[in-house]
Every structure is written in structure tokens, then in C-alpha cells.
Write a structure and sequence with these properties.
single chain, alpha+beta, 3 helices, elongated
Length: about 80
């Protein structure tokens, strides 16, 4: 029982306090600009989340949002990368 509780505690702690990537992405779509900062456990998740959040501010509807997400970011600034 103690082992199970310790294991569950370790899993919860590592998922909350593990290394994180933090990125600021600026997107421009149809003349509108939005920048968003996202923190995630995996690098690609952080980048994708920042792009999706920024596009959510400058695009209207599913078609525009998808088109915005396919546009290269205006800027990508890595604020934190584990091991760097």
C-alpha cells in the first residue's frame, strides 16, 4: 500500500513539476497580429499551443483558423527550454 501511494505521488509530482518548454509566438493573419505565450511539457506541444492560441485571436471561423495555423509564425521566442 505504501509503495502504491509513493508511486502515485511520484507520477503526480513529475507531471506537475517536470521540465517545461515556454515559448512566445506571434502570428500575423490578414493584417492582424497576435502574440501568445504557452508552457508545455513537450516542445512541439508548446509551439502548437501558442500558434493555436494566437490564431484564435486573429482568425474568424474554422476555415480562417486553419489557414492561420498553416502560416509560418512572424516570430518564435523560446523563453525556457529544459537543458539550456
Amino acid at each position: 500500500m505504501v509503495f502504491v501511494l509513493a508511486f502515485v505521488g511520484l507520477v503526480v509530482y513529475s507531471s506537475v513539476h517536470g521540465p517545461r518548454y515556454r515559448v512566445k509566438v506571434c502570428m500575423v493573419y490578414q493584417g492582424r497580429t497576435s502574440c501568445r505565450t504557452v508552457t508545455a511539457k513537450r516542445k512541439q506541444d508548446a509551439l502548437r499551443g501558442a500558434v493555436e492560441n494566437a490564431c484564435g485571436d486573429v482568425a474568424s471561423g474554422v476555415t480562417e483558423t486553419f489557414a492561420c495555423q498553416q502560416t509560418p509564425p512572424k516570430s518564435v521566442q523560446w523563453l525556457h527550454q529544459p537543458g539550456h
